[in-house]
Amino acid sequence: MKRYETRNCLLCNSSLNEPITWKLFLTNTFPKTICLECEQKFEFYNPSQQEEQDIISLYKYNDMMKDFIHRYKFMHDVILAKVFRQQIHEHLAKTKAIIVPIPIHPEKLKERTFAHVDQLLKEANIPFQHYLEKITTDTQVGKTRQQRINSPQLFRTTENVDIKGKEFLLVDDIYTTGTTILHAKTTLFKAGAKRVAAFTLIRG
Amino acid sequence: MPYKLVKENHFILYKGIIIEPQIRDFFIGRIWTRVNTPFPQEKIEKYKEQNYFNKKPGISINRSIGIFNRKRYKCNRCHNEQQNEFVQYDCARCNKTCVYCRHCINMGRITSCTDLLLWNGPKPKVKKTHELVWSGAFTDLQSTAAQQLIESLKENRNHLLHAVCGAGKTEILFPAVLYALKKGWRVCIATPRTDVVLELFPRFKKVFPKTILHSLYGNAPSHPGYPQLVIATTHQLFRFENAFDFVIVDEADAFPYTYDRALQKAVLKSKKVGAPIALVTATPSAKILAQMKREKWGYSFISRRYHGHPLPVPRLEPLWSYNKIIQKGRIPKKLLDWTTTRLENKEPFLIFFPTINLMENAIPLFQQLDKKILGVHAEDPERKGKVLKLRNEEIPGLLTTTILERGITIKNVQVAVVGAESKIFNSSALIQISGRVGRNVLFPSGEIVLFHHGITVEMDEARNEIIRFNKEGFRMEAK
Lengths: 204, 479
What we know:
In chain A, 31% of the residues lie in helices and 17% in strands. By secondary structure, chain A is an alpha/beta fold. Chain B has 13 helices and 20 strands.
């Protein structure tokens, strides 16, 4: 692993000035990619407010996060996947369940040129497997809450995979109404999964 | 030799297309991505087939010379060659490793697998009937400068127009722009600041009523037609290549133009080969001056304001540990006295702060004096409205960061700089700030005070430079 991938903050381009410490050499932490000021603008999501069990979210969807998602997902700045790798790694490295990222449609993938959830996991050094496929190309963006909740099934399981009796952890970038996660969950349960939990970076 | 008659008369299909003027007008001089044009994709592909476009890869890859032979990338849109701004990633579209440029990503991502299109079709006819509707009169200094600029154009050489703040720089450009337009040239006025574009556009539109002119900046509305005069931010020039016969860079010393090499390259790229550039500034850097001498540019210098009065010279005033006092919730005594005098005399004032943080701490303190005092900084969405309020005398004064250092004109404004020793206030910034004062004929003088915690070289330099301007202006009159 490179000790320095970037000397400037990926978000505001000010210089990082990370001191070289023993900790950096001896422990297996990722080098920093954003400056302290940018880091402080992200708000952690408070777990006590969590309504549903089995869903862990890390951050609130504030203005800073909105800007981040815009730059990462819509301006296609792939390197920004590195920003949250430390936090994602800490949360997912020790889980025993099989990690399944929410997939995107192949056509959409061609358009975007990268799978945004897969990229987040790759940068965080988390192994994952695809058990799901997306059927529809339409996105949840621009729909009302009602429309989202009533949308038809979005996923199907990939062929020739054994799901019965296994534990899964779904990973997505953002949780807004929970429709995506719910659809993925029901698909896995129908195929015989024992337990399905979910992890999202952001709670909208 | 017997001739063989061709019996089979093949129907030759006419494969040409009639070019739509909108598409031609839009693409001419521009360098644009193949997708994301304002026109339907099928049309673009059809034009491409007909060879109306030249294609260029988004990022070109060269090998560096030397033992390592490392890859060197270059973005073909912004001409960025800083290797740390290029990012490799696994592209799902091409199933291989592609590269993209982070330097110009705000204008839409350019990867090594995107194509850039350059217009290769016929050029539109340009009008040569242009008219300058302007009733103002030049001072002697102004008219010589305007004449010198036209001379430089005739000789096809670059020009530096060095004029103090409030010398009427924009007006000096009018004759030269008219000369270029009448020759059928395409002219661009570029500036690093959006505020300046917004101020210049209506002025030029008014004096050139018969010319099609466009203003370009981030999120600008689109205009129809082929513009012969373009007023744009320097960032927008990334999207042009080989387009202009004459480029004027206004406020050529402003951030980020001097700092970002890619912007300077963008200007060179946007003009045609050998076309002249004119730099317009009040505070040319030593680098520009040296380049001007080395490359034998045309040079005109105006040391007096259009109304003939001398420039206000800044007064230095110590304000020890202002930072601590403001953080304790008090306004330092001298600053308080200065502000109350302005309020009593009903003079509009600007107070410059080195950081947003310090300014935000100070706003509530000043609002205790007068509720209507406001603060403005770069990320403020109401920044335009607040300046307008000050100009219309709706509010007594504004607290600001360096964003208002140039381009604004307010009648009878009085200026104070708090923390003039800060790094951000270099000599050119201080000269620009001093230049806000006394721009109006009716109020040719005014207060400019630099409150400091120790005098810096930059402050001395700014003060000496202003005194030198005044001396020079006076000497010219004596001749």
